Design the sequence.
């Protein structure tokens, strides 16, 4: 299951997003005694996420002897969809049928369950059009208009002068003004408008989307098929997941009629065949400098992995007693993120991959200098990163963040932050006190204790036992030193911050009460909040500077290489190319396809136990099903956000549905190395076979194959 990368914790403020690039030379194979000076960057280290603004026609011609015209790209663009604000999808019939992943549709699908139904357990198929169920709040977006707005935005930024904050504000104002202006244009009216940043500011575009809000569930397999193998099989191959779902767009109460769709080709996967994935990759960081990648390797990634592991363990212990689907989803997300981040950190710790990034950095500098571009930006980024390193511990461990501190301590830290802010500026009290209305409502005391104990242990390891915040947390009222778990239990037992009457008293007492009350958790929150207030200001300024430097480097990249190097992913529509190809793994060879026979082998091998358990309707498969293809691999370049992307051939036929990458693909967040990087897709032939032999979904089979 592809997910958006969680390189950082979602606390108050963005820590660092970065820059740099890759190369146009060929890569050397790594050796046992690596000499970084001899390593060369690969030709596609920056990936293949081409934009529809500047389609790679010549590259496709030279690489595949295939020259798609403007109409080919236009039809692909219009058949491609953005599924809500987190996945990709596509039209696959003339009657508004939409294909996406099961893991993208899971929440929407279960949301239409009726009393007594469990669609995760039973799956869903609408045998008639009347049975298709509308999903409230769900929408899909079709990109219909593109306008280059680079000059307008860049001129506005330049006019702001040297002040970095003013530059950022000027850019945002230009975005807002352009949206207002285009909203009134006749051919843009009624569209959802979005400004898209490419090359971190090297180019800008305005996209206009036609939004469809009447979207109805048609087909969704059981959870045990859509997520077969669960977390153990996640990011692996060979794979056996029927990770697909189908919806239908309605227009004025009737199925949408469209000529823009990908016709199913159930037999279209062959070794070496060119494949194209069209979708909305969420975020990559391939433009980052080596200094930034080393920072990520040393600080954010290790800290994030520790956080994900301890919080997932706490939630699993809690869910063993309550057995909640919502908590189970939290655990899935944490485990998914942990596995993804582990693979990315392994890539960052690979000296060969970092040497490839360094090789491009040298080449980029040389090429830019020949074009008269200053190299000062690289030095400024390194200086900025060094300053961010110094802020990391306070900004990370003292930030009001529920996943890190638990809800109650987050509330205490927020109050401490407000207390210090109001002391410095009393005029903000009326605005700040609204936070006091949002008192914590934790799931359970045990879970709060587990989160807070983990936070204290992590803070102690990072800040040291003599740190004032850590010392205050672990020192009892009689001066005794407590363990992190003892301290968490004692502080949560003593605090009154979950009491509505106590919080109302604080509100009535004003800033003075907030700053002097002796509630033990609030007192600790004041210690942490004071430091976070100070470091937050520093990080805010450093982050603003980083945005400006990032834009400068992105502009340099675009001015040096143009569109020969595609921009980083920004959850905007892209097309990427690859071929169907196996790869060596585990001492053997990965096949290009898997079959339903393998699904049953895996099920029997694990004794029909979760997460390899199959629903009853799958118990006695017909022999014909067993030899049908189920999943396949290709060298396409995908990342989180590409979930639900169709994989098509040169004839614009759907041959698969991308849903994951293998373990070797995980460093793809910062470098694309296609040697063993593989996209894992559901085979369209497998989708048809499952519908035909198991679900008896004849209506859907006919629609997809006619």
Sequence:
């Amino acid at each position: 299951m592809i997910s958006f990368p969680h390189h950082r914790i979602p606390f108050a403020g963005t820590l660092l997003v970065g820059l740099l690039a890759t190369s146009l030379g060929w890569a050397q194979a790594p050796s046992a005694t690596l000499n970084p000076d001899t390593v060369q960057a690969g030709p596609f280290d920056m990936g293949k996420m081409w934009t529809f603004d500047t389609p790679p026609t010549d590259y496709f011609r030279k690489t595949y002897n295939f020259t798609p015209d403007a109409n080919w790209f236009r039809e692909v663009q219009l058949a491609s969809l953005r599924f809500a604000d987190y996945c990709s999808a596509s039209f696959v019939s003339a009657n508004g049928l939409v294909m996406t992943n099961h893991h993208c549709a899971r929440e929407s699908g279960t949301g239409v369950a009726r009393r007594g139904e469990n669609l995760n357990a039973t799956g869903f198929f609408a045998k008639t059009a009347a049975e298709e169920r509308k999903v409230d709040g769900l929408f899909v977006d079709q990109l219909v208009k593109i306008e280059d707005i680079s000059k307008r935005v860049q001129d506005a930024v330049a006019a702001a002068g040297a002040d970095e904050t003013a530059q950022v504000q000027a850019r945002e104002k230009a975005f807002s003004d352009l949206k207002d202006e285009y909203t009134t244009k006749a051919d843009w009216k009624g569209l959802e408008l979005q400004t898209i940043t490419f090359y971190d500011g090297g180019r800008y575009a305005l996209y206009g989307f036609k939004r469809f809000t009447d979207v109805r569930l048609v087909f969704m397999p059981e959870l045990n098929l859509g997520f077969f193998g669960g977390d153990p099989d996640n990011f692996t191959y060979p794979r056996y997941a029927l990770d697909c779902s189908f919806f239908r767009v309605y227009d004025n109460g009737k199925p949408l009629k469209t000529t823009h769709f990908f016709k199913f080709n159930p037999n279209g996967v062959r070794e070496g065949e060119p494949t194209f994935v069209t979708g909305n990759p969420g975020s990559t960081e391939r433009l980052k400098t080596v200094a930034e990648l080393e920072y990520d390797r040393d600080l954010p990634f290790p800290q994030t992995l520790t956080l994900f592991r301890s919080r997932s363990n706490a939630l699993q212990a809690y869910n063993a007693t309550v057995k909640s689907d919502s908590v189970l989803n939290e655990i899935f997300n944490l485990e998914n993120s942990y596995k993804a981040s582990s693979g990315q950190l392994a890539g960052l710790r690979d000296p060969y991959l970092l040497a490839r990034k360094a090789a491009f950095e040298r080449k980029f500098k040389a090429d830019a200098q020949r074009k008269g571009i200053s190299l000062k930006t690289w030095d400024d980024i390194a200086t900025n990163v060094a300053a961010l390193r110094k802020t990391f511990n306070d900004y990370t461990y003292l930030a009001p963040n529920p996943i890190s501190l638990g809800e109650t301590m987050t509330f205490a830290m927020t109050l401490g932050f407000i207390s210090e802010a109001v002391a410095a500026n009393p005029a903000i009290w009326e605005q700040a006190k609204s936070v006091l209305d949002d008192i914590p409502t934790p799931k359970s005391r045990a879970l709060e204790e587990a989160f807070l104990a983990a936070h204290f242990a992590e803070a102690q390891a990072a800040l040291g036992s003599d740190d004032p915040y850590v010392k205050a947390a672990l020192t009892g009222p009689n001066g005794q030193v407590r363990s992190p778990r003892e301290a968490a239990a004692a502080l949560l037992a003593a605090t009154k911050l979950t009491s509505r009457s106590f919080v109302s008293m604080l509100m009535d007492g004003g800033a003075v009460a907030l700053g002097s009350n002796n509630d033990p958790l609030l007192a600790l929150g004041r210690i942490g909040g004071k430091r976070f207030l100070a470091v937050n200001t520093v990080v805010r300024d450093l982050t603003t500077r980083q945005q400006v430097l990032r834009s400068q480097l992105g502009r340099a990249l675009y001015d040096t290489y143009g569109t020969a190097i595609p921009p980083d992913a920004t959850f905007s529509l892209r097309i990427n190319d690859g071929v169907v190809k196996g790869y060596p793994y585990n001492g053997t060879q990965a096949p290009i396809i898997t079959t339903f026979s393998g699904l049953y082998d895996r099920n029997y091998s694990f004794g029909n136990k979760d997460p390899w358990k199959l629903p009853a309707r799958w118990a006695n498969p017909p022999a014909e099903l067993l030899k049908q293809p189920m999943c396949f691999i290709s060298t396409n370049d995908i990342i989180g956000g590409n979930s639900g992307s169709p994989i098509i051939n040169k004839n614009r036929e759907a041959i698969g549905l991308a849903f994951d990458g293998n373990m070797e693909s995980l460093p793809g967040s910062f470098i694309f190395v296609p040697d063993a990087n593989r996209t894992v897709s559901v085979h369209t032939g497998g989708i048809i076979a499952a519908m035909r032999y198991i679900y008896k979904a004849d209506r859907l089979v006919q629609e997809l194959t006619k």
In short: Residues 50-139+213-279+573-705 form a domain with the Thrombin, subunit H fold (CATH 2.40.10.120). Residues 520-561 form the longest helix (42 residues). Confidence is low (pLDDT under 50) at residues 3-31. The first strand starts at residue 50 and ends at 51.
